[in-house]
Design goal:
Oligomer: single chain
Helix content: 25-40%
CATH class of the domain at 593-814: Alpha Beta
Strand order of the largest sheet: 8-7-9-10-11-12-13
CATH topology of the domain at 593-814: Glycerol-3-phosphate (1)-acyltransferase
Radius of gyration: 29 Å
Number of strands: 31
Shape: globular
CATH superfamily of the domain at 593-814: Glycerol-3-phosphate (1)-acyltransferase
Strand content: 15-25%
C-alpha cells in the first residue's frame, strides 16, 4: 500500500507540470495518461491542469492497439504509461508513472506558476466506451467540470458541520480514473470534503469488503454490477455459516422498519463492513431494483447518479438523505432537463461537453436549440425525481408496432435465482425485431433445460407482446464488458443472432473469452487459444501461474489453490476447474493489535527476558555478516531458509535492535488459523492449547498468516500495509521445513512479493540446526548454530518475478 498526502500530490503535480514545460508541451497540447488508478495518475492529471495541457485518459485494461489509435487521433505529444503496458510504437515521448512516484518525496520543488485558465479552455478528451458503437473523443472544459462541482459543493456545505464528527471521510473509488465519474468521486469531491480516496487493484468482492473494513471506508463508489456482486458475496458467506435462511426471514420482516431498527437487526453485516461504512454510490448504469432494495433494507444508503461523458458525468443524483426508490434523483441546479415526446432525456447547461474531437476541430454535440440528446429514455414523478427507462436505440419495436424496453424484461429474468446476469437484445426479423434473452447462469452445468424454465417463468409475468420466444445461454463465464462493466451489446447481439439463426459463427469473428484475454495478457502473448482451442497447452511459468491464480480469483470470484493448478496443463482443463463448485475457502485473519505500543513493549521485554536467553541456551549462535546491516534502517524484506520452528528466533537474534523491533514474521497461514480456531473434532486440551498459543505467538513474534494454498494476495496486501507503516517483513520462501537439510526451491510468489513491496532484500542462511533435529537434540555447543547475513540486494522494477525468486535462492545458498 502506498499513501499520498495532499502535500505529496501538490509536490508531484508541480514537478510534472515543470517537466511538461521542459519537454516543450505547450498549453492545449495533448498528454496521454494510460495506467491504473494511483497517486501518480492523480498527480499527472493535476499537473496537466496546472500547465494547461489537455489530458487524454485511457483505462489500464484498454487494448494496446486501441490506445495507440487514440494517441494518434488525438495527436498526443507526451504519453505517461503504467508498468507492463505496451508503449512501444506510440508516436510521442514516453515516460513512466513510476518516475512520478519518485518525485513526491523530493525536497526541492521547482519554481513553477500555473498557467492561467479560462472556463472555455479544454481540460481533457475522454474517449467513451460505448456499448453499441466505436468509442469517440469527448472534449471537456474547465467550465464543464465546474458546472458539476460547484452545485455539489453548495449542496455539501450545509452538512459540513456534521461531517466533522466522522472526519476524515474515506471514499473507495473502484471506477477507473479514465472516466469522468471516477474522477469526480475520486479526485474532486474528496478535496471538497478534505477526505481520503482509496484505490484498489482488484474487484474481488471479498477483498473489497476487507478493504472497506480495514481502511475504515465511509463511501464505496462503484458500478451496479459490483454492488450486485457484493450482495451475492454477503449471501454466500451467510450460507456458508448456515445463516442464510434466518437472514431472509429477517429481511422480509425488516420491510417498513425504522432505519435504526434495521441497522440493529443487521448489525452483523455492518460489523463486517466496519462501523464507518454507510453508503454505496453507483454510476455507469441503472442499479437493479433488487440490489438497491437489498442495500437500503440492511441499513446502507444506495445512491444513484445519472449522466454521460458528454454531460461531464452528472445530470441528476439522489440526495443521500432523501432517497427515492428506483430513482436516479433530481437534476443538478443550473441544469435544464426535459423529456421529448418520445420520452428521451434532453439536457441543456454548461456541463454539456464542448463537442466531439475531430482532427480538424471540435464537432458540436447540441441540436439547433442547444439541447443534448442523451439517447436514454426516462420518466418523471410529481416531485421531479427522474427514472431511467432504458436506451432509446435499444428499444425493440415488434411487428405490431409495440415498443418493448429490454430493461423491463431483464428485471423479470433477474428475479429467477438461477440467473447470474442477463441482457435482452433485439433480433432482426423481417425488418422488425423480437426480444431474445441472453443468460449467464449461476450453475453453468444446468444447461439449456434450466434456461428454458427460467424464460418460461419470466414470460408468465410479462404481457403477451413482451414475451421472449428466443433465448441463448452465453458460452463464456461472463459477457464482454466495457471498462465500466457494461455489457458490449453489439458483440452479444451478433453472437446471439448467429446462434438463434443456426448459423455457425466464424472462428475469427467469435468474441475472445475473458479466459483467453487473461491467458494472453499474463503470458505476454505466448499463450493464445486461436479459435478457442481448449487443448492448447498453457505452458505457463510458475510465476505466471501465480499471476493467473490472482487474476482468476479477481475476475471469477473464486478461491483457488496451488493444488488446484498442479495438474492443469491445458486451457480446457482450466475451464473445467472454474466450472467446479468451490468449497468455502478458509478465512485468514490479519490482526493489527500487535502493532499497538503496549504490545510492542511486552514483545521487547519478552525477547530480552525469554527469547534471546532461550536462543543462547540452545546453542549460542554465531552470527556472521552483521556488518552488512550497519547502514540499513528499514523497512526491508528478509528471506531465510527454513529448518525448524525456532528459525524466526535465531533470525531475530541476529538482527540489530532497530530492525528487530519493527519486524513482522510471515507464518504458515493454515497452521496459524488452526491455532486461532481449532478444526472440528480437535480434542479439548489440544483446542485449549491452540487458543493459548495463538495470542502468545501473535503478540510475542508479531506473526501474520501467509497461506500455502490460497489467499496469498491478502497476505501480500497486509505485508504492503506493514511496510507502509515502517515495518520490515521476514519470510521463509521455501514454504515448508526442509526434509533433507538442503534448501528447497523458493516459491515463485516471493518474486512477486519483492516486485510489489519494492524493498531491499536481506538474505539470511541458518546452518547447524538440521543435524540437531535429526539427532533429536535440543542443545548444542556455542557456535555450532550459524546465522549468516548477506548484503542487501536491490532488484529493478523490470526484473521478472521468477528470476528474482531464483536469484534469492542462489544468494541464500551461497551464504553457506
Amino acid at each position: 500500500m502506498v499513501r499520498w498526502t495532499y502535500a505529496d500530490l501538490l509536490r508531484a503535480a508541480t514537478q510534472f507540470a515543470h517537466r511538461l514545460e521542459e519537454r516543450s508541451v505547450a498549453k492545449g497540447e495533448r498528454v496521454l495518461l494510460w495506467g491504473e488508478n494511483s497517486g501518480e495518475w492523480v498527480a499527472a492529471f493535476l499537473g496537466c491542469l496546472a500547465h494547461g495541457a489537455v489530458a487524454v485518459p485511457m483505462d489500464a485494461i484498454a487494448d494496446a492497439n486501441f490506445a495507440h489509435r487514440v494517441a494518434a487521433q488525438a495527436g498526443v505529444k507526451l504519453a505517461v504509461v503504467g508498468r507492463g503496458l505496451l508503449a512501444s510504437g506510440l508516436a510521442a515521448q514516453v515516460i513512466s508513472f513510476d518516475e512520478l512516484g519518485a518525485t513526491r518525496d523530493s525536497s526541492s520543488v521547482p519554481n513553477f506558476s500555473p498557467v492561467p485558465a479560462q472556463r472555455s479552455d479544454s481540460v481533457e478528451i475522454v474517449f467513451t466506451s460505448g456499448t453499441t458503437a466505436e468509442p469517440r473523443g469527448v472534449v471537456l472544459t474547465h467550465g464543464n467540470l465546474l458546472a458539476n462541482i460547484e452545485p455539489l459543493e453548495r449542496e455539501i456545505a450545509p452538512y459540513r458541520r456534521y461531517e466533522r464528527i466522522f472526519h476524515p471521510l474515506r471514499f473507495l473509488d473502484l471506477l477507473p480514473l479514465s472516466h469522468v465519474f471516477g474522477q469526480l468521486m475520486g479526485v474532486f469531491v474528496p478535496q471538497i470534503l478534505g477526505g481520503t480516496t482509496v484505490f484498489l487493484d482488484t474487484l474481488n468482492p471479498g477483498e473489497v469488503i476487507r478493504t472497506i473494513r480495514d481502511q475504515r471506508v465511509s463511501v464505496l463508489v462503484t458500478v451496479p454490477r459490483l454492488a450486485e456482486s457484493l450482495r451475492d458475496q454477503v449471501e454466500r458467506d451467510l450460507d456458508a455459516r448456515g445463516r442464510l435462511e434466518k437472514f431472509r426471514r429477517d429481511f422480509d420482516a425488516a420491510e417498513g422498519e425504522h432505519f435504526l431498527r434495521r441497522w440493529w437487526r443487521f448489525r452483523s453485516i455492518h460489523r463486517r463492513f466496519g462501523w464507518k461504512f454507510w453508503a454505496i454510490v453507483s454510476g455507469g448504469a441503472a442499479l437493479p431494483a433488487a440490489v438497491e432494495k437489498f442495500w437500503q433494507r440492511v441499513g446502507f444508503a444506495a445512491i444513484q447518479g445519472y449522466g454521460l461523458t458528454e454531460t461531464t458525468s452528472l445530470v441528476s443524483v439522489n440526495h443521500p438523505f432523501h432517497l427515492g426508490a428506483g430513482s436516479i434523483g433530481k437534476s443538478l441546479p443550473g441544469l435544464e432537463v426535459k423529456l421529448s415526446e418520445a420520452g428521451e432525456i434532453l439536457v441543456r447547461g454548461e456541463n454539456v461537453a464542448a463537442g466531439y474531437w475531430k482532427d480538424s476541430g471540435v464537432a458540436p454535440v447540441l441540436d439547433a436549440d442547444g439541447w443534448f440528446h442523451t439517447g436514454d429514455l426516462g420518466e418523471r414523478d410529481a416531485v421531479g425525481n427522474l427514472y431511467f427507462k432504458g436506451r432509446l436505440k435499444n428499444v425493440i419495436v415488434t411487428p405490431a408496432g409495440l415498443n418493448i424496453f429490454p430493461e423491463d424484461l431483464e428485471a423479470e429474468l433477474r428475479k429467477e435465482s438461477g440467473v447470474r446476469d442477463c441482457v435482452v437484445v433485439g433480433l432482426e426479423r423481417d425488418g422488425n425485431a423480437e426480444p431474445c434473452a441472453v443468460l449467464l447462469l449461476r450453475d453453468a452445468a444446468s444447461g439449456a433445460a434450466a434456461a428454458a424454465e427460467i424464460v418460461t417463468r419470466a414470460n408468465e409475468r410479462l404481457a403477451p407482446f413482451q414475451q421472449m420466444r428466443h433465448w441463448f445461454v452465453w458460452p463464456d463465464r461472463d459477457f464482454p464488458r466495457t471498462p465500466t462493466q457494461k455489457p458490449v451489446l453489439a458483440r452479444i447481439r451478433a453472437v446471439a443472432q448467429a446462434a438463434v439463426d443456426s448459423v455457425p459463427a466464424q472462428p475469427a469473428a467469435a468474441p475472445k473469452s475473458l479466459l483467453d484475454g487473461l491467458l494472453e495478457k499474463i503470458s505476454r502473448g505466448n499463450v493464445a487459444r486461436a479459435g478457442g482451442d481448449l487443448g492448447a497447452d498453457l505452458n505457463l511459468t510458475s510465476i505466471e501461474r501465480v499471476e493467473l491464480m490472482s487474476a482468476l480469483e479477481d475476475r471469477y470470484q473464486v478461491d483457488l489453490t496451488e493444488a488446484d493448478f498442479s495438474n492443469i496443463a491445458t486451457a480446457g482443463a482450466l475451464e473445467q476447474l472454474l466450472e467446479q463448485p468451490r468449497a468455502s475457502a478458509m478465512e485468514f485473519h490479519y490482526p493489527r493489535w500487535p502493532r499497538l505500543w503496549p504490545v510492542r513493549w511486552i514483545r521487547a521485554a519478552a525477547f530480552y527476558g525469554l527469547v534471546r536467553p532461550a536462543m543462547l541456551l540452545l546453542g549460542w549462535p554465531r552470527v556472521k555478516g552483521r556488518e552488512n546491516l550497519r547502514r540499513v534502517e528499514g523497512p526491508v524484506l528478509i528471506v531465510s531458509n527454513h529448518v525448524t520452528y525456532l528459525d524466526a528466533g535465531f533470525v531475530l537474534t541476529a538482527l540489530p535492535a532497530r530492525l528487530r523491533r519493527r519486524t513482522a514474521i510471515a507464518m504458515e497461514g493454515e497452521l496459524l488459523e488452526a491455532m486461532r480456531k481449532p478444526l472440528p473434532g480437535t480434542r479439548f486440551f489440544r483446542r485449549l492449547l491452540g487458543r493459548v498459543q495463538y495470542p502468545l505467538v501473535t503478540a510475542l513474534f508479531h506473526v501474520f498468516p501467509l497461506p500455502t494454498k490460497a489467499g496469498f494476495r491478502k497476505s501480500f496486501a497486509f505485508a504492503g500495509e506493514l511496510v507502509d507503516r515502517g515495518w520490515s517483513v521476514l519470510v521463509f520462501p521455501e514454504g515448508e521445513l526442509t526434509r533433507d537439510g538442503a534448501i528447497a526451491p523458493f516459491r515463485a510468489g516471493i518474486g512477486l512479493l519483492v516486485t510489489r513491496l519494492r524493498l531491499p532484500v536481506i538474505p539470511v542462511r541458518l546452518e547447524g540446526l538440521f543435524d540437531l533435529k535429526q539427532a533429536n537434540k535440543h542443545c548444542t555447543t556455542p557456535g555450532h548454530i550459524r546465522v549468516t547475513v548477506g548484503a542487501p540486494i536491490n532488484f529493478r522494477e523490470t526484473d521478472a518475478p521468477e528470476e528474482i525468486a531464483r536469484e534469492l535462492e542462489r544468494c541464500v545458498a551461497a551464504l553457506g
